[in-house]
Amino acid sequence: MTILIIILVLLVLILAVALSHQVKAANKHTEEQQQLLKDYQKRVDEQEKLLSDYRSLEQNFDSVGQGYEQALLAFDKIEEDKQKMQNTVNTLQQQNRDLQEQYQKISGSQLQKKQIIEQAAFEAKKVLTANPANALRLLNSILNANDVAMETAIEADDNVTVGEIINKAVLESGIGAANYLTFTTEADEDVKSTMLLTNEAQAVRALGALLDNAAKFTTEGSVKLTVKPESQQMQFIVEDTGSGIADEDAEKVFEPFTKLNSYFDGAGVGLTAARSIARRLNGDLILDTTFEGPGARFVLSLPF
Q1: Concatenated DSSP letters of 9-40
Q2: What contacts 172, CB < 8 A, 6 or more positions away?
Q3: Using CB atoms within 10 A of its CB, is residue 275 exposed (0-12), middle (13-18) or buried (19+)?
Q4: Is 129 in a helix, a strand, or coil?
Q5: Alpha helix (H) ranges present in 174-269?
Q6: In the chain, is it the N or the C terminus that has fewer CB atoms within a 10 Å radius of its CB?
Q7: What mean pLDDT, rounded, does the chain reach?
Q8: What pLDDT does 64 receive?
Q9: 188-210: pLDDT as tens digits
């Protein structure tokens, strides 16, 4: 009996010890679990903080990006305004240069006009009694200089025949008396008798200046005046066998005070004035660049 009790006590002690070990193991496991949970929670907290910091940085980056874009837009606007201002400055500077050039041209033109008029008046005094035809040409040179750059319309209230304009222009230019060239006129009788509503004096001056120019630059050979209607215009075509004019100078010859050949007399205003008169009479004066020469062909057109 005693042995049985001792065995039971031993069993109880063994169970108690085992239970104690199990309890301790369970407690240790529980503590480890709790520690793991704490560590996990700490990592979770750290990750949330990192995520929060990342979101803050992301928001800051977005703000910085927006600010950068706004700065770029502002910079582009400043550059655009700067370019506009520079363009305005360039335009104003160019306009100023153009005005200065125009002023210089006008000033030079006025001075040349004055010199031509004074010289022509002086020459007119010498030849007025000796040679009336020369005096008339000098008077026309004065009028031509004064007509440079004129744009006002000319009153066309004269009824005159084409033949009268031809005869007076030939007389004024003196080309019929030039013994160093042959001058011919080609115009049908019905053309010569055609009436033009124009300004007789100005039309004669324009054609006279054209004939004078042809005579001046034709040292030998011939000058031919052909007159014919074309649409609603009467064309006075002057062809010469002179030195001719290059195509690139087709408009330059009409610029005031322009002389393509300095060896010939004149102030370089005859053709300028003739074109001015023609256009102010609703006609025109051109150099025919299709003319194969030798010499040059000018076409004066007047309405009828």
Answers
A1: HHHHHHHHHHHHHHHHHHHHHHHHHHHHHHHH
A2: 133, 136, 137, 140, 204, 205, 208
A3: buried
A4: coil
A5: 189-192, 200-217
A6: N
A7: 78
A8: 61
A9: 999 999 999 999 999 999 999 99
Element (H, E) at 159: strand 158-161
CA distances from 68 to 71, 73, 78, 162, 285 (A): 5, 9, 15, 81, 65
Pick from 148, 163, 160: nearest CA to 280: 148
Which alpha helices (DSSP H) does 218-296 contain, by range?
270-280
For the residues 214-235, what does the mean pLDDT come to? Answer: 93
DSSP SS3 for 255 = coil
Q: How far apart are CA 167 and CA 182, in angstroms?
A: 16
What Å distances lie between residue 187 and 151, 278, 298, CA to CA? 31, 20, 16
Residue 253 neighbours by CB under 8 Å, 6+ apart:
245, 260, 271, 287
SS3 302: strand
Q: What is the pTM assigned to this prediction?
A: 0.55
For residues 46 and 35, give the distance between their C-alpha atoms in angstroms, rounded to a whole number.
Answer: 16
Q: Are 197 and 159 in contact (CB under 8 A)?
A: yes
